Amino acid sequence: MRLYPVEKNLFKRSAMLIVMLSALCAFAGCASDLALSPSCRHKAVYCAITAREYMPVRIARGTFKDVPHAQAQGYFNDQWQNMEIAGDWIVFIELPGFKASKFNTITDYLHYLYTIDHPSKRMRMAQKDLS
Question: Signal peptide location in the record (predicted)?
Answer without folding.
Answer: 1-28
